Amino acid sequence: MIRSRRSVDKVIASQNTNAEYRQGRMSKPYWRSAISRNWLVALLILAALVGAPLAAARLPSDRLMGLPSILVFFSIGLPAIFLILAIFKISMQQALDRNYELDSEDQLQRRRVPKRLKSFPVKAFDVPDTDTPAPESAQSDSEQQQQRTMTGIDQTNQTQVAG
Amino acid sequence: MRLRVLNSFLLGTIILLGILGLLERLGLSSDLVTRLLFALLLVSLLFSGVRARSVRTTDMFVDGYRMTPLPNGLSMAMIATGALGYSFWPGDIFANQLSGFIVPLGVVGGIALMGALFVPFLRRADVLTPMELLQLRFNSRLLLFLATCISAVAIVCVLVGQISFLFGLSARFTTVPPNSALIVILVGIALPLVLGGMRAASWLQMTMAVLVGFGFLLFLAWIAFDLTGLPMPHLSASDAWRATRLLQEDAVVRDLARPSDVNWLEFLPSDWRVVSLGMVGVALGVSAFPPLLARAQTTRTAKESDASIGWALVFMLALICTLPVYAIFLKFQITQSITGISVNALAREAPFLFSITSGLSLCGIPVSTAQEFISACGEGHRLTASDLQIAPMAFMTALPDIIVGLGRPVPQTMAAMLACGALAALVAVVSACLISLSHHIALDLYAKFLGTSSPMSRIVFLVRLSVLLVAAGTYWLLTWPPLIPYLQHPERLILSGFAFAAGGLFPAYLLAIWVGRAGKVAALGAMLVGTGITVAMLGVLFGLDQFDSVSVILLPLIGDTYPIAAAGLPGAIAGLATGLILALLAPGRAPDIISARLSGQVEP
Question: Strand order of the sheet with strand B388-390?
Fold first, then answer.
């Protein structure tokens, strides 16, 4: 199969990322970026909540669409600001995940609920059960993950999607 | 698949409404119309139960990770709105003008905040309940127990507050005794949840959303059509508002109204800081409210759980821009009909007022009989629009009486659909609360403490059993005499629930996801300090009536419109500060498996 230069770069970057992650070096820069982006949006939302009444109190007593401007601001403006901030956050999160080749859609594994629950310690949550079909091959998780990235096929997403 | 069934349900509801409207024209009694619409609601409950029945473990907890963003966002919006949003918020804007936006905007801000801080990471953690994230992250039984108790208290406050709206609805629209109506609704909600767990809750919330949408918009569209000839309430609201203003200006000239009455909905009645504090307090509570967080886990992927927040905000935007339209139309009708009327002539000029049995006040005094109407403002008093107050709690039940009483030809199908929508909103939020509480009992408490190493089938059975136990407990709680006085103000109970979530759970989730150094000591400290301060705040605020000296100090600081809205704020700030200090003094480390899951990686 012929790959474009861009896709080859992506695969190499992904292999590096996975290798870095396996060595425990990857999560720090990812989290630094995630913290800066998500906290920026959270602070903007809090600023909107705190500042909106102040801004509304200083709005001129004009009419917008035939209604008091402060009423329009509270009933349409402020909820729309929250919606825009949420969309902004979603796009930033997706861009961040793409930068780190962490496409959550590809790599998210669904919970395998164990037949017998062992609550503590946390490692007990990785026991497979009958709800999710067990992997057919005996490959390790990291090998499967690397193979998925190389071939572009997401095997985990093929289960339990139909509703 | 879900969207196809949802579309079919939507189409079926439209056809049924059309048939009912036609039958009403042909002489079907209004009582029968109401009963048929309530039957539609019960059929939807049964349909959800049958459609969602499941034996799969993941269906009981996270709906099999099936939800696509649109229905999941719709469910989120339904839980955030509930009976409070449907039945109370429009009346709150009518009664308290722009202060009525504090809670709705706080809720919308809370959903946005939840999306920014918790949602995709909670889904990536791949947990079955929101509490499980705290357990996996901090690996502490004590913390899990404490968090589950705080969450249960928060959910019970919201559950009791939301379901208390049922009493007003059943008294107004049915002849069924309130306690019997409560049993019917609780059994109707519990049965689908027993059969299908979280999957059934999803179906309930989606089907109820259809009824809520019709109920909320049809009545309004009919009033707009009657007034302007166009069934577009949002477009004709400005005309109604301008007409009300002109009527008030005329009343001022005739010395029948105060000049301040002219500026209705034009100014913030409270200090801006009070509004800000209230909105931030509600937002923090909503962002960490477990039934809403549970909706972050029902999607197929983390990306879709993020998109659900966007859809939820779209639906909330649609709701919030409709709230003032209700208030504007009713204000116009009341201003037009009662301004200048003598109280002695009320029985002749506005007899419909006497059919409203609760929630009406005249000149600040609650009234229900003809004599009370006359004596409230003094004999011979000529009424102004601001003399008549409608309690927000009674707004939706009084609205059809007032509109029909004023001679507007509203079909009973519309009025009954308004009530049916209120009931549907109640069902949606109660289903979310019941299933969250049963998850707490079965998984967060039993499986993690008593039945460690239990077979999963036993835990699933316990979830089913817990739903029935929680429903029975809710019935007992709502009929418990000491609680009855608190049911008169359900908004206070609901805001107390959000305050508990803000003070106790918000700092813990923030530390779990965003502060890598935070260990169980930091999280425990944050939860204990946050909850302690919230309990103290709520104790003071609920007792304000008894302690005048306290109210003199506190009310100017936090405002007298919605003091309880801000009750969780000090707890959240103090809890977070404590958690951060303890994280520095006694750092901990997240287990590798959780770090891997939160950052979107599978376990290496």
Answer: B365-366, B360-362, B388-390
**Residue A145 buriedness (CB in 10 A; 0-12 / 13-18 / 19+):** buried
Which residue type is seen at A145?
Q
Q: Is residue A26 part of a domain?
A: yes
Closest CA to B413 of B29, B4, B2: B29
Query: For chain A, how many structural domains are there in total?
Result: 1
Lowest mean pLDDT among B242-251, B339-348, B515-524: B339-348
∠ CA B576-B581-B585, nearest 5°, is 145
Report the relative pairing of strands A63-64 and A67-68 from DSSP bridges. Answer: antiparallel
Q: Using a CB-CB distance cutoff of 8 angstroms, which residues of chain B are in contact with residue A67?
A: 237-238, 241, 265
Would residue A27 count as lying in a domain? Answer: yes
Q: Return the structure tokens found at B244.
A: 């009300």
Structure tokens at B553: 């100090």
Determine the structural domain holding residue A108 and report its residue range: 5-156
Tally the residues of chain A.
Answer: 163
Q: Do A75 and B279 touch (CB under 8 A)?
A: no
- SS3 label, residue B341: coil
pLDDT tens digits along B271-307: 788 889 899 999 999 999 999 999 999 998 888 999 9
Q: Are B389 and B338 in contact (CB under 8 A)?
A: no
- DSSP 8-state secondary structure symbol assigned to residue B354: G
At the top level of CATH, the class of B2-253+262-328+412-598 is mainly alpha
Burial letters for B120-155: b for 16+ Cβ neighbours within 10 Å, e otherwise?
A: bbbbbbbbbbbbbbbbbbbbbeebbbbbbbbbbbbb
pLDDT at B548 over 80: no
**φ/ψ bin of B235: left (φ > 0), alpha (ψ from -120 to 50), beta (otherwise):** alpha
Residue spans per domain, chain B:
2-253+262-328+412-598
**ipTM of predicted complex:** 0.92
| DSSP collapsed to 3 states, A39-96 | HHHHHHHHHHHHHHHHHHHCCCCCEECCEEHHHHHHHHHHHHHHHHHHHHHHHHHHHH
Contact between A70 and B268 under an 8 Å Cβ cutoff? The reply is yes
Quick check: A67 contacting B, CB < 8 Å? yes
Q: Find the residue in A nearest to B597 (Cα).
A: A108
Each residue of A96-121: pLDDT tens digit?
888 776 655 545 555 666 666 655 44
CB spacing of A79 vs B58 below 8 angstroms:
no
Decide if A111 touches B, using CB distance below 8 A: yes
Do B604 and A39 count as a contact with CB atoms less than 8 A apart?
no
Strand A67-68 with B360-362, pairing: unpaired
Contact between residue B513 and residue B121 where contact means Cβ atoms under 8 Å apart: yes
B360: three-class secondary structure by DSSP:
strand
Q: Could you give the 3-state DSSP secondary structure of residue A133?
A: coil
| A14 within domain boundaries | yes
> Going by C-beta distance under 8 Å and a sequence separation of 6 or more, which residues neighbour residue B538?
B496, B499, B564, B567
> What percentage of residues in chain A have a pLDDT greater than 70?
45
Q: Which bin fits B110, alpha (ψ -120 to 50), beta or left (φ > 0)?
A: alpha
